Amino acid sequence: MQKTKARILVVEDDRAILNGLLDVLAFNGYDPIGIEDGAAGLETALKEKFDLIVLDVMLPHVDGFTICGRVRKAKPAQGIIIMTAKGSEDDIVSGFKSGADDYICKPFSLRELMVRVEAVLRRSGKLTGDEQLNLQGINFDGTNLTASTAQNTIEITRREMDIMIYLHHHRDRIVPKKDLLRDVWDYADADIETRTVDIHILKLRKKIAALIGENHLIGTVRGEGYRLELDE
């Protein structure tokens, strides 16, 4: 597939890793820019326009989670991938809480890197994320990115809204994780090993539980996938 000359900012303090990432991205047809310092990376990310930002977590002066949160607040539609050397669930959750679209654990293969980069860059336009859904007393508002009941309102992410829309569109069947990776995350290679879907579903369930109690709304069918559990 021929790629457009997408502009990608990479913020990574390890010079060898940074140069390797820039080389790979340039080889694959992108226009990458590299910065080694967190504070400089944040300033550049806020001032200039990028199709995608790739952030290391451990950076001098300003860490990747902080950069991600600041950029997400200023540019809600910005594509962001977090890189973490730890790979723990806490780090992954922290990345998503700060607004990352995806994460990648070091060390990673070039194939995995490009799958994730391409997925975030291709993602726009597939789902009608401005829809509104009313499910089990919760109004999911894709325009304002909120989930609310008569008593409470919480913020949701664009990805969480997309998940709810997709599950609702396919409410008559079990939705395999592979389908979500392909159609919500836009992974061309949906067989890649990742816990991205699991982490997002976990966060969604916690938000739903905060609104209507432990009725998770999203059921898990072990070994098969997910489905909406709606009262008749």
Structural class: alpha/beta
CATH architecture of the largest domain: 3-Layer(aba) Sandwich
Fourth CATH level, the homologous superfamily of the largest domain: Response regulator
| Unreliable residue stretches | 124-129
- The count of DSSP E runs of length 2 or more, i.e. the number of strands, is 11
Give, in spatial order, the strands making up the sheet with the most strands.
2-1-3-4-5
From the spread of the alpha carbons, the general shape counts as globular
Mean pLDDT reading:
84
Largest beta-sheet characterization: 5 strands, parallel
CATH fold call of the largest domain: Rossmann fold
CATH class of the largest domain: Alpha Beta
Contiguous helical run count: 8
Fraction of residues in H or I helices: 25-40%
Radius of gyration: 18 Å
**How much of the polypeptide forms β-strand, as a percent range?**
15-25%
Distance between the termini: 44 Å
Structurally, how many domains make up the residues? 2
Order of helices and strands: EHEHEHEHEHEEEEHHHEE
Could you characterize the architecture of this molecule?
- By secondary structure, the chain is an alpha/beta fold.
- The protein folds into two domains: 7-122, Rossmann fold (3-Layer(aba) Sandwich), CATH 3.40.50; 132-228, Arc Repressor Mutant, subunit A (Orthogonal Bundle).
- The protein is 40% helix and 20% strand.
- The chain has helices spanning 15-27, 38-47, 64-74, 89-97, 110-122, 158-169, 177-183, 196-212, and strands at 7-11, 31-35, 52-56, 80-84, 102-105, 132-135, 138-141, 146-148, 153-155, 218-221, 225-228.
- The strands form three sheets. A five-stranded parallel beta sheet has the order 2-1-3-4-5, sandwiched between helices. Strands 6-7-8-9 form a four-stranded antiparallel beta sheet. It has a two-stranded antiparallel sheet with strand order 10-11.
- α3 links the parallel β3 and β4 (80-84).
- The radius of gyration is 18 Å and the shape is globular.
- Residues 124-129 have low confidence and may be disordered.
